[in-house]
Design brief:
Number of strands: 14
Largest sheet: 14 strands, antiparallel
Radius of gyration: 18 Å
Distance between the termini: 31 Å
Shape: globular
Structural class: mainly beta
Order of helices and strands: EEHEEEEEEEHHEEEEE
């Protein structure tokens, strides 16, 4: 199968940001012309890292607001420092399409230092099962053969994309985020993590839509390595409101947690 070379193709810089072209690998499960939120979230994380000015800083929290559907096609990203500092800063990044803001992220970044004897270090909780023991799966819920799910290799250790209930999966990127540059572990994490509510859905994909309006990722350690995992559970409340929480891992242990709010309605 021939795949696009990346999730996004560079389309020129402009003052304060960058233009990119979304490929078919960004297509989400609901509409063929609307992106899955994972790739644009990763693009915003990339912009946050490029905009930040604190040397040696680590992004510790990313809060995304999904302001509207992100069309598959040209997008523009830009960033600014909202709260400058020498040790801690708050950065904002915005993604727009057709001149309209579609997603926004705010991120706290903290300067790191070498570990000292006064630091209280606890071992990272390992994921109970590594990627080598995972079950390979190509999700069958997408409407087109080339879409978001093809950007990652999926190995499930619990549950499935195609059946309801909690699930855990390892992923490995198969293409870069932006053509011509390697994908970073943080970018990979964001491409993956927005799918936590998809792998752990409590609803039948054929009978309901369950789109998240936000995503928050909190990290006490930066992700590292080729394989990352999420162990996700969704809970459906009354009136069409759901939440999804996921523990996030790399192969050496847990790195943080994600949360998302979902709007659920019958198809």
């Amino acid at each position: 199968m021939d795949l696009p070379p990346a999730l996004y193709l560079p389309d020129g810089r402009h003052p304060g940001g960058e233009d990119l072209l979304a490929t078919a690998l960004t297509i989400g499960p609901w509409e063929d012309d609307v992106q899955h939120a994972g790739p644009p979230a990763a693009l915003l994380a990339r912009e946050v890292e490029r905009t930040g000015t604190v040397p040696g800083a680590q992004t510790v929290r990313l809060a995304f607001d999904i302001l509207g559907p992100v069309p598959v096609g040209p997008v523009r990203v830009g960033g600014r420092v909202l709260r400058p500092g020498r040790r801690v800063e708050l950065v904002e990044a915005t993604l727009s399409a057709g001149g309209v803001a579609r997603m926004r992220a705010t991120a706290w970044r903290m300067r790191t230092r070498p570990v000292s004897p006064v630091d209280v270090l606890a071992p990272d909780a390992p994921h109970p099962t590594g990627p080598d023991a995972g079950r390979a799966e190509v999700p069958g819920v997408f409407r087109t053969d080339v879409a978001y799910h093809r950007a990652l290799e999926w190995r499930f250790t619990a549950g499935s994309f195609d059946s309801p209930g909690p699930a855990a999966a390892w992923t490995r990127p198969l293409v870069p985020l932006v053509a011509g540059e390697p994908i970073t572990p943080l970018e990979h994490l964001l491409v993956m993590t927005d799918a936590a509510s998809g792998i752990s859905a409590e609803q039948d994909w054929a009978r309901a839509t369950f789109a998240n309006v936000d995503l928050t990722v909190s990290l006490y350690r930066q992700p590292a390595g080729e394989w990352l995992a999420m162990d996700a559970t969704s809970s459906l409340g009354p009136g069409g409101v759901a939440q999804c929480f996921a523990d996030l891992f790399d192969t050496t242990g847990r790195i943080g947690r994600s949360a998302a709010s979902l709007f659920v309605e019958p198809r």
